[in-house]
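REQUEST ID: PR-0412
SUBMITTED BY: lab tech R.K.
PRIORITY: routine
TASK: structure prediction, single protein chain
INPUT:
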Amino acid sequence: MGLFANLLEQVAVFRVTRKKGACDDCRVCEQKSPCPTVPEILKDSVLRPDCFSCTVCVNSCKDENALEFGVKRVK
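STATUS: complete
OUTPUT:
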């Protein structure tokens, strides 16, 4: 079941994304969020641990919309 959930996470349409221009790499979101996915989001990793979409990282970000929960952008 865990493998299936991880595969779905990799192709999820809705996910937490980082806007590079708005983020100043202060890492407050990483410190406040209990989620292991946040460091991988900050590194723009393709493969990430499971994100439970709690949005703690998004809400703790001090930068204006540097992290957002929404539709994944195609690069």
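NOTES: The longest strand covers residues 14-18.
REVIEWED BY: pending
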